[in-house]
Structures are given as C-alpha cells and as structure tokens.
C-alpha cells in the first residue's frame, strides 16, 4: 500500500504538483490568517475570480495565464486597498467590481476562440499540469511575498486588530491595506494554480479560518494554519493519484471535513459563540 | 512644568459643520479629568484631535508641549469599541501584545521584554486571571479591562479613555473607576475619562470638562455643573439637581433629564 503510494512520486508531474501545492498552501495559510482577522474574506474571493479575466485576457494579448492573473489580481488588490477600508469590506462594491470583471472575462473568452478547454483548468485547477518553470515562478513569488509580509507584519497585525489605535500611532491604514491586498493578489493567484479560481477560498481562507477558531496566539494560528494547508494538499494529491478523481475535489473535501470538525470543537468544546 | 494638555481658542470643523469653537483648557500632569456632554457634542472629536487624527481649524492644541500626533507614544488610548476579532479564539494576551510597539516594522515576535510588559499591563488592569482566554468569549467587563491593559502597555503619561463605562453594569462601573483611580495614584498618569453619566466619577475626578453646544467649560464639579454655567453652554435653560451623592442635569423647559447625566 505504502509502496504503491510512494511509487506515484516517480512521476514528474506528481512531484511538481507536490511542490507547487506546498508553496501555495504555505503562502495561502499565512496570508489567510490576516484575511480572517481583517475580515476581508469576500474581497479575497473576488480577487481570485477577477484573476479569471486576467487569464482569458492574457491569451488575447499573448501573455501566459499566470502573468495575466498575477497582473490583474495585484492591480485589483492595490485598487481595493487604496479605495479604503469601508469600500473593500462592502459586499456591494466588491460584488459589482467582481461581476463586471467576470463579464469582461467572458468577452475575452469569446474573442479568443479555442480557449474554452483551458478555461476549465483555470476555473477548477490543474495541479498535475504545473510545469517546472511555473514552479520556479511560484517559488520566487511566494518567497517575495513572505519576505514583504514579514517586513510589515507587526504593523499589519496591530492595524488589523485595532485600526483606530494603529491610526493614532501614525500608521497609514490605506498604505498598509494596499500593500497587503497586493500580497493577497499574489497568494490567490498561486492558490488558483493548485485548486482553480473557483476554489481558491479553500486554500487561502480555509486553513487559516479553521486555525483561527481555536488557536489563541498569533504564531500558533499561523503554524496550525500551515499544517492544515499542507496536510490537505498532500493528502488530496495522493488520494487523487489513487482514485483518479480530481485533486481539487479531494483538497476541498478534506478542508471541508476539517472545518466541520473544527467548528464542532469550537462550538461545543471551546464554547466560542459565533 | 509643561501642562499635559494646553488648548487655546480651539476650533474644529468637520464636513462643513463647526463641531467645536473657542474651546480653551489647561490640564496639568496627573489630573483626573472627566469629560461629559450630550451625544454628538464633540467629545470623541476632541480626543481624536489631540491624537492628531482630526485637523484643527483654528486655535492651538498642545499635548505635553508638542503639536497633536507628535506625542502619541506617551498617550495610551482606549477607543470606544474593540470587537474586531469576534469569532476567533485569539486570546486577550495576544491582543495586548499586538499593541505593544505595534507601529514597529518586522515580524510580531514576542521578546521576553515584550512578554513582561504585556503581563505587567494585564496585571495593572486587573485582567491577568483571564488573559489567556479568547478575547471574544470574555464578558463586557472583562473586555473593558483588557482594553484598559492595552492602553497602559507602552507606559503612557496620558491615558485617554473613550466611554469605558458603556456596556458595564453598575457594579463593574464602580470597580473600573476605582481601579483607574488607583492606577493614577500609583503611576501619576494624567487621565482623560469620557463618560455618559457624571455620577460614577464624582468622588475621583479633579475637574470636569463639559462639552455642549460647540463650547466647553473646565472646572471643578461645583464650578461647572451649575445651572448658570450649563445654561450658557447649552444655550437653553438648564437646571442642576444635587442630592447627597448624586447630580442630575435637567432641561427646565422640557422636563427631559439630560442624557449625559442620567443615573
């Protein structure tokens, strides 16, 4: 049984999937914790979906879909950050921008005929199709994002928990939130390579959301969040190898199960009311 | 000695509306000042102005001799609400520790100095016993103590408390006021305490800053909470009813007890 499982690693595409999945899971887990405490889950979800327009547009303009998604998600993130705290937490504002962006994406899709097959893999993920050069790009982007985040994470934590107080200590909330939203744009782009745009929520918010429900410290939350992310991606890929079902299905199923367990514990064992 | 707060002929306009005008006050270091006034009179605006968060349109406002915003490291601020992390299990201790030197760059790694400071602030605020429980499950009284701890963390010379008594039951109101008074005696901090009701603070305040009708009056309770002085501020006939232990402010025209001073 174990031999059978390990034999999967003799395939290049399985090893690539593990690498890319692990990197996306780690970045998603760290960035996701800030998404949870900043309460910008919907904006995060929207950023990923806006990436669809970037991917279809990229085909039209001769860029790779990763480049297209990265570009549009970072720009959209920065704009959301600049537009201020109220606006990018507003479901109406985010929803309007999101639906318009998806509309443009549909136009691009219609203009560039023959892209429909690729569209499915963008929407639902194609982790077994990740190439070596994509892994290098993923790794570089993830390291850059984590280093950038490390530079201002103390400020970000403070400003996320007590924004008024942070402002009184001379922290620019707009600047901070723009910088964070750009990093979030990168994180959702990388995660969408693994699970697809529609399922980004599962990697960027899922693990952190579960961890935040029962971890009492910042570092323990980050650590548990990373462990949950890695566990689900690894198990999901292995189960996909064994069953021939899509890895995106397995990863979302595992995270959903963990969510149910976590929520039950939080409510009935730790008595954390919603 | 430089006064903790020196306000001269201050005016603040916001969104085309004159919130405050001609406000003058000088508050000495170590004083306990109660700030009262009807809702929307500009109490929070004044606090925001002294933190440099809201521009002043005329006059002068100095905090420890510096312009607003320049002395913020010596101000501990307790905002009206602190419930951004409902639904997470983040502990009170983690919350307070995020505030300590929260404006610095880098990662929030808790050094041993930081852990000591956090433990000390929690103890000063009387919140040690539940510091490791999730902030979101604490009672309103406990949350207030944690927010108080947070305002004490960087050893402030001035503590600014924006309605800490809101959402507390009478017993917890009393305990909190006594506690803050004790703290002030021990540390010599200046306290600016915004409250809705004057009565819980009667025994401990040095002076009162009453804000109404765009203006303000500073003085002892006996000087400021009088019918003539409040009538001048409100621009309408006001009465003050004093019993042995309580003070009530009522409008003589409408029989309405002023919201600022209901018991």
> Overall 3D geometry of chain B?
globular
Number of H/I helices of chain B: 7
CATH topology of chain B: Rossmann fold
Structural class, from helix and strand content of chain B?
Answer: alpha/beta
The main sheet of chain A comes to:
none
Poorly predicted regions of chain A are none
Tell me roughly what share of residues is in helical segments of chain A. over 70%
CATH superfamily of chain B: P-loop containing nucleotide triphosphate hydrolases
Strand order of the largest sheet of chain B: 5-6-7-3-8-9
Mean pLDDT of chain B, nearest integer?
86
Question: CATH class of chain B, anyone?
Answer: Alpha Beta
* Elements of chain A, N to C (H/E): HHHHHHHHHHHHHH
Give the SSE layout.
The complex is a heterodimer of chains A (274) and B (263).
Chain A: H1 2-7, H2 12-38, H3 41-61, H4 65-82, H5 85-88, H6 91-111, H7 116-124, H8 132-161, H9 163-168, H10 173-195, H11 200-204, H12 206-214, H13 218-243, H14 247-269
Helix pairs in contact in A: 2-8, 2-10, 2-12, 2-13, 3-4, 3-6, 3-10, 4-10, 8-10, 12-13, 12-14, 13-14
Chain B: E1 5-14, E2 17-27, E3 32-36, H1 43-50, E4 58-63, E5 75-78, H2 92-99, H3 112-124, H4 140-152, E6 158-162, H5 170-187, E7 190-194, E8 207-212, E9 215-219, H6 221-224, H7 227-234, E10 238-242, E11 247-251
Parallel strand pairs in B: 3-7, 3-8, 5-6, 6-7
Antiparallel strand pairs in B: 1-2, 1-4, 8-9, 10-11
